[in-house]
Amino acid sequence: MGVQCDSFAEGHSTGRRLMFGLLAVMLCATVALAACAPSKEKVAEQQRQECFANEQKIKTAMDLEHADSGFYPDVNAVAKALGAKCPAGGTYVFDPNTDTVSCTVHGHP
């Protein structure tokens, strides 16, 4: 009977070590994933930069059309033709008074 208790205790100790080992591996994996995942601020900044680049492309295309025809085309038609979409879901707006293209989410740079 003493053999069974020793054997049980040894098996129980091995189970604990295995459990703590698995917990340690899971903790390390969680920390590694958290370190690799981009922060919300970084994602928002990347979206803002992409949006501003789209604004510049749209404005350039609108200026070229204005130079050729004397009229500004519809900003949404230009954005669609260029495949320019705000990554945050905003829409582009042209203000003829200030001659700027801006986004309803990110504004104008």
Chain-wise SSE layout:
Elements: H1 2-36, H2 40-69, H3 75-82, E1 92-95, E2 100-103
Can you offer a commentary on this structure?
The protein has 109 residues and is mainly alpha-helical. The protein has two domains: 1-37; 41-103, Pantoate--beta-alanine Ligase, Chain: A,domain 2 (2-Layer Sandwich), CATH 3.30.1300. The protein is 67% helix and 7% strand. The chain has helices at residues 2-36, 40-69, 75-82; strands at 92-95, 100-103. It has a two-stranded antiparallel ribbon with strand order 1-2. The model has no long low-confidence stretch (mean pLDDT 84).
Task: Characterize this entry briefly.
The chain has about 110 residues and is mainly alpha-helical.
Specify the CATH architecture of the largest domain. Answer: 2-Layer Sandwich
Classify the secondary structure makeup into a structural class: mainly alpha
The amount of helix comes to 55-70%
Alpha carbon gyration radius: 29 Å
H/E element string? Answer: HHHEE
Text of the CATH class of the largest domain: Alpha Beta
- Straight-line N-to-C gap: 80 Å
Q: What's the total number of strands?
A: 2
pLDDT below 50 for ≥5 consecutive residues: which ranges? none
Number of helices: 3
Strand percentage lies at: 5-15%
Total domain units: 2
Q: Strand arrangement, largest sheet?
A: 1-2
Give average pLDDT, whole number: 84
Would you tell me which CATH topology of the largest domain applies?
Pantoate--beta-alanine Ligase, Chain: A,domain 2
> How would you sum up the major sheet?
2 strands, antiparallel
| Overall 3D form | rod-shaped
